[in-house]
Every structure is written in C-alpha cells, then in structure tokens.
Amino acid sequence: MPLHINMKGKKRDANILLLSLIIFELVLTAIYLVDTLYLKESSWTIHSIFNMDAEATLPAWFSSIQFLLIGCIMIFACEKRETEQAISRVLLLVGGIGFIFLSADEAAELHEKISFVAAQITAWIPMFTEKGHGSWMFLYFIAGIALIMMLFSSIKNAWKHHKNEMVYVVVGVLLLALGAIG
After folding, report:
1. Inter-CA distances, 23 with 47, 56, 153, 161, 172, Å
2. With 0-12 CB in 10 A as exposed, 13-18 as middle and 19+ as buried, what is 20?
3. Does residue 3 carry a pLDDT above 50?
4. Angle between helix 58-77 and 89-108 (nearest 10)
5. Which of 16, 134, 143, 167 is the most buried (most CB within 10 A)?
6. What separation in angstroms does the CA of 133 have from each of 103, 113, 120, 121, 181?
7. DSSP 8-state class, residue 178
8. Helices (H), the chain
9. Measured distance between the N- and C-terminal CA atoms of the chain, rounded to whole angstroms
C-alpha cells in the first residue's frame, strides 16, 4: 500500500513555520552567546544545555531534528515530480538519505566514532589531534566529492532550471561545512 501524505498548506502557514524556526534558532544562539561572552562563571547547567560546541545539547537536538525533517521531505518529494524541469528523483533521494544520515550523525555522535576507528586503523588520514579527532572531516569530504561527481548531471540540471534555489543550497552547504569545522 503506497504512502500518501497530503502536505498541501498555505504559503502563509509555511512562512509562519519558517519564521518560528528562525526565531527559535536565534534564541538558542542568543542564549549561547550571552552565556559564553558574559556569564563566564555561569552555572554549568546553562552551558551544558545550550553549548553549541558540544554534543547532546538542545542546539544539537534541534539541528538533528532539522536534518531529519529535511531528509524526510526530500524523500517524500521524490514522488511529486511533475515536469521535466523538476529535480531528479535520484538527487532528491540521495539528498534525503544524506540529511537523515546527518541527523543520525548529530544525535549518535557518529563522526566521533568514525574518527576513533580511523585513528586506530590508518595513519594516512589527516587528523587534528593525536587521538584522531577530525579525521571524519577528510572522510566526509571524500564522500561528498564522490557524490558530487556521480550526481553531476542531476546537479547541473537542477542549477539550470532552479538557479535561485540552488544558490541557497550551495550557501547552506558552505555554512554547514564551516559550522562543522569551526
């Protein structure tokens, strides 16, 4: 039995949801900045709950939920192709799976485990500490380049027909990469 989800809504509802998510993100950021810059001797509780540089925090949970929802929406969108200008199903499916992986990675700290294993089995992968932290970045970079090469024609077609949206995608990927590194 096929799964049919009616995701029709008003543009106004989507704008309210987007604005609410942005405001929540800004509140998390403000709490983190106030705690980091002004409450240096603050209670460990505030810092441990809102620390954007740590795992198992409210911002990490929120990020994981966002990745999961984006991945699910992309996978559901695979069925809604209506024109030749639509983004390819393969690109949507791979993107959706990628975002679901990022959600699991954020929630289960997979990148830390990957770094640990990489440090144990090989010495040639670049690392940022002697314990192997950061080797996941190199491995994810290689996987990302391989995916871009395999999906190049689909990406090129999406860029041709949806240039403005693809600019947002590129900026988002760059921000995600900068956030992961920094």
Report:
1. 20, 21, 36, 31, 18
2. exposed
3. no
4. 160
5. 134
6. 20, 9, 11, 14, 11
7. H
8. 11-37, 44-50, 58-77, 89-108, 110-121, 135-150, 152-161, 163-181
9. 45
Instruction: Write the pLDDT tens digit of every residue in 106-152.
Output: 888 887 777 777 767 766 666 665 555 667 777 888 888 999 999 99
Contact present, 114 and 136 (Cβ < 8 Å): yes
The amino acid that residue 131 corresponds to is K
Whole-angstrom Cα distance, residue 101 to residue 22? 23
Q: What is the CA radius of gyration of the chain?
A: 19
87: which DSSP letter? Answer: P
Per-residue confidence (pLDDT) for residue 26, from 0 to 100? 95
C-alpha pair distances (Å), 54 with each of 24, 32, 60: 18, 11, 8
Tell me the per-residue pLDDT of 49-86, one tens digit each, with 9 for 90 and over. Answer: 888 878 888 998 999 999 999 999 999 888 776 666 67
Mean pLDDT of the chain: 82
Q: Exposed, middle or buried, 132 (CB in 10 Å: 0-12/13-18/19+)?
A: buried
pLDDT tens readout for residues 7-47:
566 778 888 988 999 999 999 999 988 888 887 666 667 88
Which long-range contacts link 135-139 to residues 24+ away (Cβ below 8 Å)? 136/111, 136/112, 137/180, 137/181, 139/114
